[in-house]
Amino acid sequence: MLKELMILFFCHTASAVIHSLICNFMISSGLPNAPEYLVILNLDNVLMAYYDTNMKTVEPRQHWLKEMKKEDLDTWENYMQNAPLYQYRLAEDTKSFFQQQTGGFHVIQQITGCEWDDETGGIHSFTIFGYNGEDFIIFDKDTKTWIASTPEAEIAKENFNGKKARTEEFKTYHKNDCPILLKKSFNYAKSVLHRTVLPSVSLLQKTPSSPVSCHATGFYPNRAMMFWRKDREEIHERVVHREMLPNQDGTFQIQIDLNISSVTPEDWRRYDCVFQLSGIKEDVVIGLETSLIRTNCGTCKKSYEVIVLLVLIIIGAIGFTVYKKKKEQPPTSPPETDCELSERLNSETIQDPAHCATSS
Ligand SMILES: *[C@@H]1O[C@H](CO)[C@@H](O)[C@H](O)[C@H]1NC(C)=O
């Protein structure tokens, strides 16, 4: 269910009248480069706020959070001020998760949230605890008890069901707090969540023999398509699609590479790159032209928490097995500069990246 939920929330559809507020808490140990605790709060699949143990306070990631009225802000601030402290509560709650496990890493996730159907008014709230990427115990809304998802979770389940007062807190959160915060937040976020923004599209190339990347960034929502054309026909050969990535400001970016090694200079003008955003009739089209290709490399800056966010998305979407497998391409942060971008494009081939000074 953990996986299905995450997939559901990361791929919401155009017809959605279901709004969601989902908080993802994660404690980890033994994982290199991961903070020991982090909190991600998403509203309708868009990052609202982020916290991890490398930061002092919770960071709002949407400007409308700063425009909230006093009485609404209180609900929100109360919620987020408690997020850093919740680390200890979560650790305490989940102590029994790894009783029999030794060594290696531990990742404990709590996904708590609610969904609101703004047509019927129906509310559905949930809490799922995960251990190392698998569902562990789930709150059953009918019986108001915790149920184990695996035999290993039996002890933890007994433990949870024995804590009546704590279970009451979850019930109150499910029934009152979460729906209230969701509705209040949605009121402010409506105009932002229902907007459509076209991206800026550019062509990037590391060296004259590298593939040309068509890169679109800053678009919203994430229902977008991009492809290369030759003579106005979509092509698939020698084309590599990169995964769509979230930007820090809630918009998205996407990239698609074309290997032009066998394209003669006269044929360049027959190619173009097309970006289409759902709900917008006009496409953004950029022709393959030397003069339009950017290759420069400025100073680079890496964004640590976005890497973490991506790691989390991967954990949620395809399960923890990703850590056990050798990955061909590690997740990288969305580029912020041309330099980072060309660095990312060529991460496999770069021999000496020293000219792109990185800092973290
Ligand atoms: C591009 O295609 C050529 C031949 O079609 C191949 O040799 C080369 O490795 C490809 N480049 C990349 C970066 O995939």
Main beta-sheet annotation: 8 strands, antiparallel
Question: How many E-type strands?
Answer: 18
User: What would the principal axes of the Cα set say about the shape?
Assistant: elongated
N-to-C CA distance: 35 Å
Number of domains: 2
CATH class (first level) name of the largest domain: Alpha Beta
Indicate the CATH topology of the largest domain.
Answer: Murine Class I Major Histocompatibility Complex, H2-DB, Chain A, domain 1
Helix content, binned percent = 25-40%
> If you compute it from the alpha carbons, what radius of gyration comes out, rounded to the nearest whole angstrom?
23 Å
* SSE string, helices as H and strands as E: HEEEEHEEEEHHEEEEEEEEEEHHH
Strand pairing plus helix content: what structural class?
Answer: alpha+beta
> Which cofactors or ions or other ligands sit in this model?
2-acetamido-2-deoxy-beta-D-glucopyranose
Examine the secondary-structure arrangement and name the CATH architecture of the largest domain.
2-Layer Sandwich
Strand content: 25-35%
Number of helices: 7
Low-confidence stretches: 5-16, 297-360
Could you report the average pLDDT, rounded to the nearest whole number? 78
User: Looking across the biggest beta sheet, what order are the strands in?
Assistant: 4-3-2-1-5-6-7-8
CATH superfamily label of the largest domain: MHC class I-like antigen recognition-like
Protein name: Ig-like domain-containing protein
Pfam family, one: C1-set
Organism: Oreochromis niloticus
GO biological process, one term: immune response
